[in-house]
Amino acid sequence: MLLGEQKEMQAPHSLSVVVPVFNEQEVLADFHCRLAAVLDSLGLRTQVIYVNDGSTDGTLEAIAQLAEHDARVVLVDLSRNFGKEIALTAGLDHADADAVVVIDADLQDPPELIPELVAHWLDGYDVVYAKRTCRDGESVTKKVTAFLFYRLMQKLSRVRIPEDTGDFRLLSRRAVRAVCQMREQHRFMKGLFAWIGFPQKAVPYRRAPRHAGATKWNYWKLWNFALEGITSFTCLPLKIATYVGLCSALGAFAYGLYIVLRTVVLGSPAPGYPSLLAMVTFLGGLQLLSIGIIGEYLARMFDESKRRPLYFLKDGQPRDSLRLAAPF
Ligand code: UDP
Ligand code: MG
User: Fold this and answer.
1) How far does residue 233's CA lie from ligand 1's centre (Å)?
2) Going by fewer Cβ within 10 Å, which terminus of the chain is more open, N or C?
3) ipTM above 0.90, yes or no
4) Parallel, antiparallel, or unpaired for β 200-207 and 127-135?
5) Residues of the chain predicted below pLDDT 70
6) 277-316 b/e with 16+ CB inside 10 Å = b?
């Protein structure tokens, strides 16, 4: 048995809660109050890691205030706004506990569900994710687009990404270690959580409306998030472009043959300007679309090939994910 494994087995059960926060000063106190009450009831050694994702309001001061009154609070302060996915990763890098819960600060994910997540973890599941049974206070368009997106992802990707599931979940230590080893710049977290495998379990819950403050997502961001999900987890669009190209080329070839034969048999009255124009613009459009799809993948390869660190902390170096092997 490896030394690390031995220590892991001897350690008492400890739990880290990772909370990415970006401009959440209105909800933070309420959130922490509810979270602390839940953590008190667990009987585990706990730690709450707030990742300040370059907030521009009083969030940082609010976290400092919480830390004064609660020794469990740890602050990870990023050098600018990196986005929720990277903030989450930074939190996971800094979590050393036997299990880690990832939760939003806006109280849309109820902290009261944590004991249930923990219970399933103790039963032996590595990833216990909270599955929304309903989304209160969100527009019909958002619900419909989210519904379609999850079904499309299901069809496109070989990894089964659970539908109607956000980032709210519990990860065992080996699951956290696995996620932290994936250092890609474009992080579709739900996909990564699913990709690592291990025994996974869903816990249904009712998603509440935001407690206060405003969502940081608009439809343009959501569209890009969907693109991120698709391009990070499947190359199918590239294949579709190839087959559409092939079909239209075959069609054009057949049409050309038909024109030649018709000219030979019937002579050439030379009409057909409109149809020619339609064909040329249609094919031009298809070509641009295909180039665009290739470009999406190429841009991601470009970003990955730079091999930059995922984030910087305001003070000090980003923590190396391999140090996660150290005990709590
Ligand atoms: N968040 C973050 N960085 C960002 C945007 C959001 O850390 O750039 C945090 C935010 O503070 C919250 C969580 O991610 O704790 C979810 O954000 P939000 O509620 O805006 O997303 P939604 O629930 O609408 O999907
Ligand atoms: Mg929210």
Assistant:
1) 22
2) N
3) yes
4) parallel
5) 1-12, 135-137, 210-214, 216, 268-270, 274, 316-328
6) eeeeeeeeebeeebeebeeeeeebeeeeeeeeebbebeee
Nearest protein CA to atom 18 of ligand 1, as residue: 215
Task: State the helix-helix crossing angle for 273-305 and 236-266, rounded to 10 degrees.
Answer: 160
**Phi and psi angles of residue 226, each rounded to the nearest 5 degrees, phi first:** -65, -45
DSSP SS3 for 313: strand
> Which ligand 1 atom is nearest residue 104's CA?
15
This prediction has a pTM of 0.75
Furthest C-alpha separation in the chain: 92
Nearest atom in ligand 1 to the alpha carbon of residue 23 is 11
Q: Write the pLDDT tens digit of every residue in 91-136.
A: 999 998 899 999 999 888 899 999 999 999 999 899 999 988 876 6
Residues 6 or more apart whose CB falls under 8 angstroms from that of 2 comprise none
